[in-house]
Design brief:
Blueprint (H helix, E strand, L loop, with lengths): L8 H21 L9 E5 L14 E4 L5 E7 L11 E6 L6 E14 L5 E8 L13 E5 L8 E4 L4 E3 L2 E7 L5 E5 L1 E6 L2 E6 L6 E6 L2 E4 L1
Antiparallel strand pairs: 1-2, 3-6, 4-5, 4-7, 5-6, 8-13, 9-10, 10-11, 10-14, 12-13, 14-15
């Protein structure tokens, strides 16, 4: 007569314990550690509660360090180098100039109407401002320093052949033409190397006459 297998409660408990320990080990192995300390900027999982292997889970950022991605025309890229100082303006903080430095230049240009190269710039001082990711920025690259430079608006300068000149208003109100030697330019102003003294008044040509500067 066949026998009915006996139930062994102890075996069921042991199996359940083993399964529990396996699940605990599995959970421990599924911990995801952030590679850097920072703040979660975006949650890619949301309310799903699960994610596929290799999927992006979170976006983490360090809000005490920021980079700016600038685009430089191919004709000007020869003036840019790693370690070069820059001045950064953020539209969210008008009037505040943030210092920075060039970190890297892209290995290739982006094609469009004009070829442009991505330049990565690191902000070196946030000036105590609550800077946030994805703000609009304008970057001015410092290509050189001229001690005690005299600058004038670029639209003051007139050209005749190879000669550069400006119109000067003298102390008596008389307007005279003055030939000048020019240097580098940036942000709408140009350096005058010779031919003009500090405090002299130059005129800006316009369609309706000239305006003292």
């Amino acid at each position: 007569m066949p026998r009915t297998p006996s139930t062994r409660p102890g075996g069921a408990v042991a199996a359940a314990t083993q399964d529990y320990q396996a699940q605990v080990k599995k959970v421990a192995q599924s911990d995801v550690l952030a590679p850097i300390a920072g703040v979660v900027l975006a949650d890619r999982i949301g309310n799903n509660g699960w994610a596929q292997s290799g999927a992006e889970l979170f976006v983490i950022g360090q809000l005490d360090r920021f980079r700016v991605r600038a685009k430089v025309d191919e004709l000007d890229i020869n003036k840019i180098r790693s370690g070069q100082p820059v001045e950064i303006n953020l539209e969210a903080f008008p009037g505040v100039v943030f210092p920075g430095v060039v970190e890297s230049l892209s290995a290739e240009a982006q094609q469009g109407t004009f070829a442009e190269i991505d330049v990565m710039v690191a902000m070196t001082d946030l000036k105590g401002m609550p800077v946030k990711p994805n703000l609009s920025a304008k970057v001015n690259f410092v290509v050189g320093n001229v001690s005690g430079a005299l600058t004038i608006p670029m639209n003051c300068v007139q050209y005749e052949g190879n000669t550069n000149f400006v119109n000067i208003v003298g102390p008596d109100g008389q307007i005279t033409r003055r030939t000048i030697e020019l240097g580098s330019s940036a942000n709408g102003r140009i350096v005058v190397l010779d031919g003009l003294g500090a405090g002299e008044t130059v005129l800006v040509p316009s369609q309706e006459g000239a305006t003292p500067q």
